[in-house]
Amino acid sequence: MVEQTVTLKNRNGLHARPAALLVQTASKQSCKIWIRKGDKEVDAKSILGVMSLAVGAGETITLKADGAGEEAALRALVELIESGLGEA
Amino acid sequence: MSTPRAVPVHELVRGLGLTVFNPDANLNRPITTVDINRPGLALAGYLRYHAAERIQLLGRTELSFLRGMDSREQALRVFAFCSYEQTPCVVVTRGEAPPESLLREASSRGLPVLGTTHVTTRAASVISTFLEERLAPETLVHGVLVDVYGIGILITGSSGIGKSETALELIKRGHRLVADDAVIIRQVSDNTLVGSAPALLQYLLEIRGLGVLNAMTLFGAGAVRTHKKLAMVVHLEAWRDDVAYDRLGIDEQTVRILDTELPSLTIPVRPGRNLAVIIEVAAMNHRLKRIGFNAAQQFSEQLADAIEEQMDPD
């Protein structure tokens, strides 16, 4: 199991479209992936779960991956978030 | 992952609209128990078993007792009473004002003195209801919660296995959706778990290819519920030929959520299996078992009788 903390850069936070992109990317991975904000942790492959976190701009979230290809999956998601999830 | 079990005093003040007699006191003191103490004996000087960590509720009895003392004695008792750092706050009921000495002593210790207009027993029940709700252990699980024939069923399984699709089919069959994808589960009392949707996701359902849907606007108010007591867990998993699935249903499996064991079933998923029907039947079977009729158990007993008869022909 690997995990990494990232800061969300998107100006408007993790609203519907960037969240969908994040979930789509997570769903392509075969390992299990979770996102944690504060004491709430959700399945990163679940769009409603991810949106329920209501992550705001500048907030930090922790990504956690477990299973085959966890390193690569985590890297792909961190890069995606750092690149601004198709927005910046 | 359960939430820390403490409520700061200012949340109690805001939640119940209480008066604060000493606003400069420490309103961040944590309330860690739902129990309430009426400190009559403590004020009479008996402090060996004083439940200091509870909210201290002063009603007419305690107040008139305090007022009846001479001022030296009153100061002494109040000094001892306010000296506990674990006491979250003092609440004075019936809209009464706290005695001067109590307010002075509490303020110097940072102990909040609050007021309510309720009579004491009513105040106690309002406060404990509020705290029970706030202090209930809570967890967020990935799954779908549906009410099927009045049985709260939590459907779990990995992403993409078909939980939401199963819920959709169940809604079409007249059952109710409580939460899709993320379910907040709270331990409201011993052995009782109640699930609800995160506020943002209420009534929402996500179906691959369709996107986010609102079950209430699509199917009506009868298709949704805001919360439901959990009765069983149905775990969906991809069919694997090397796994032996339960064929009899005699042994009851359970899973643990927070501090409660819930009966659970593992249903293998394969194209062509109608999961909604299987879950409906699981719900009905669960009800039957509760009523006291266990088909698997009864069959097994009949079989045992039949075998015995064969072995003993006369």
From TrEMBL, chain A:
<dbReference type="InterPro" id="IPR000032">
    <property type="entry name" value="HPr-like"/>
</dbReference>
<dbReference type="InterPro" id="IPR002114">
    <property type="entry name" value="PTS_HPr_Ser_P_site"/>
</dbReference>
<dbReference type="GO" id="GO:0005737">
    <property type="term" value="C:cytoplasm"/>
</dbReference>
<keyword id="KW-0963">Cytoplasm</keyword>
<keyword id="KW-0598">Phosphotransferase system</keyword>
<feature type="domain" description="HPr">
    <location>
        <begin position="1"/>
        <end position="88"/>
    </location>
</feature>
<dbReference type="GO" id="GO:0009401">
    <property type="term" value="P:phosphoenolpyruvate-dependent sugar phosphotransferase system"/>
</dbReference>
<comment type="function">
    <text>General (non sugar-specific) component of the phosphoenolpyruvate-dependent sugar phosphotransferase system (sugar PTS). This major carbohydrate active-transport system catalyzes the phosphorylation of incoming sugar substrates concomitantly with their translocation across the cell membrane. The phosphoryl group from phosphoenolpyruvate (PEP) is transferred to the phosphoryl carrier protein HPr by enzyme I. Phospho-HPr then transfers it to the PTS EIIA domain.</text>
</comment>
<keyword id="KW-0813">Transport</keyword>
<dbReference type="Pfam" id="PF00381">
    <property type="entry name" value="PTS-HPr"/>
</dbReference>
<protein>
    <recommendedName>
        <fullName>Phosphocarrier protein HPr</fullName>
    </recommendedName>
</protein>
<dbReference type="InterPro" id="IPR001020">
    <property type="entry name" value="PTS_HPr_His_P_site"/>
</dbReference>
<keyword id="KW-0762">Sugar transport</keyword>
<dbReference type="InterPro" id="IPR035895">
    <property type="entry name" value="HPr-like_sf"/>
</dbReference>
<dbReference type="InterPro" id="IPR050399">
    <property type="entry name" value="HPr"/>
</dbReference>
Automatic annotation (TrEMBL), chain B:
<keyword id="KW-0067">ATP-binding</keyword>
<keyword id="KW-0511">Multifunctional enzyme</keyword>
<dbReference type="InterPro" id="IPR003755">
    <property type="entry name" value="HPr(Ser)_kin/Pase"/>
</dbReference>
<dbReference type="InterPro" id="IPR011126">
    <property type="entry name" value="Hpr_kin/Pase_Hpr_N"/>
</dbReference>
<comment type="subunit">
    <text>Homohexamer.</text>
</comment>
<dbReference type="GO" id="GO:0000155">
    <property type="term" value="F:phosphorelay sensor kinase activity"/>
</dbReference>
<feature type="active site">
    <location>
        <position position="247"/>
    </location>
</feature>
<dbReference type="Pfam" id="PF02603">
    <property type="entry name" value="Hpr_kinase_N"/>
</dbReference>
<feature type="binding site">
    <location>
        <position position="206"/>
    </location>
    <ligand>
        <name>Mg(2+)</name>
    </ligand>
</feature>
<feature type="region of interest" description="Important for the catalytic mechanism of dephosphorylation">
    <location>
        <begin position="268"/>
        <end position="273"/>
    </location>
</feature>
<dbReference type="GO" id="GO:0004674">
    <property type="term" value="F:protein serine/threonine kinase activity"/>
</dbReference>
<feature type="binding site">
    <location>
        <begin position="157"/>
        <end position="164"/>
    </location>
    <ligand>
        <name>ATP</name>
    </ligand>
</feature>
<dbReference type="Pfam" id="PF07475">
    <property type="entry name" value="Hpr_kinase_C"/>
</dbReference>
<dbReference type="InterPro" id="IPR028979">
    <property type="entry name" value="Ser_kin/Pase_Hpr-like_N_sf"/>
</dbReference>
<keyword id="KW-0808">Transferase</keyword>
<dbReference type="GO" id="GO:0000287">
    <property type="term" value="F:magnesium ion binding"/>
</dbReference>
<dbReference type="GO" id="GO:0004712">
    <property type="term" value="F:protein serine/threonine/tyrosine kinase activity"/>
</dbReference>
<feature type="active site">
    <location>
        <position position="163"/>
    </location>
</feature>
<comment type="similarity">
    <text>Belongs to the HPrK/P family.</text>
</comment>
<dbReference type="InterPro" id="IPR027417">
    <property type="entry name" value="P-loop_NTPase"/>
</dbReference>
<feature type="region of interest" description="Important for the catalytic mechanism of both phosphorylation and dephosphorylation">
    <location>
        <begin position="205"/>
        <end position="214"/>
    </location>
</feature>
<feature type="active site" description="Proton acceptor; for phosphorylation activity. Proton donor; for dephosphorylation activity">
    <location>
        <position position="181"/>
    </location>
</feature>
